[in-house]
Amino acid sequence: MESQNPEATPRVYSRFWYSLGLFLPLVDLQTTTVWKPKADQTFLRNYMRVHTLMGWILIPIVLAALTGLISTPWFH
Fold first, then answer.
1. How far from the centroid of its chain's Cα atoms is residue 23's Cα?
2. What is the pTM of this model?
3. Which DSSP category does 7 fall into?
4. Engineered SS bond to 70: which of 34, 46, 64, 76, CB 3.0-4.6 Å?
């Protein structure tokens, strides 16, 4: 990973917080604005996009299931 702004004060990179910041929709942990995959890391840039997309798909489904908007057969 590399800093998006090389002139900024150096910060410590955390894989956990970066991943969580990508996965949670509508939550800004400000990790994605500080860090980005290096330009030569094509796999990481694609993984980042898929990770973000899965968060936008899975989190609303889980929330809908937990609130009862989606009927699940194993919770009857």
1. 3
2. 0.76
3. T
4. 64
